[in-house]
Task: inverse folding
């Protein structure tokens, strides 16, 4: 089945399309509000991996000196 009746003119079709786009935009905004912010996750992963690398370098440097 089609979303549009067969006897819809151009103006009605454009209005129908605009309503569908507006509804999709609302859904997208709701989903984006529920999702985690990607930048915060990326910063956390970067800091965590840098801390791990620093700890490994520190452990290796003290092990070689002995």
Result:
């Amino acid at each position: 089945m089609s979303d549009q009746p067969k006897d819809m003119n151009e103006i009605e079709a454009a209005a129908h399309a605009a309503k569908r786009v507006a509804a999709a935009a609302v859904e997208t905004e709701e989903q984006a509000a529920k999702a985690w912010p990607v930048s915060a996750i990326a910063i956390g992963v970067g800091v965590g991996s840098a801390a791990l690398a620093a700890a490994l370098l520190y452990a290796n440097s003290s092990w070689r000196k002995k």
Remarks:
- Residues 38-65 form the longest helix (28 residues).
- The two ends are 78 Å apart (CA to CA).
- The chain has two helices and no strands.
- The helical segments are 10-34, 38-65.
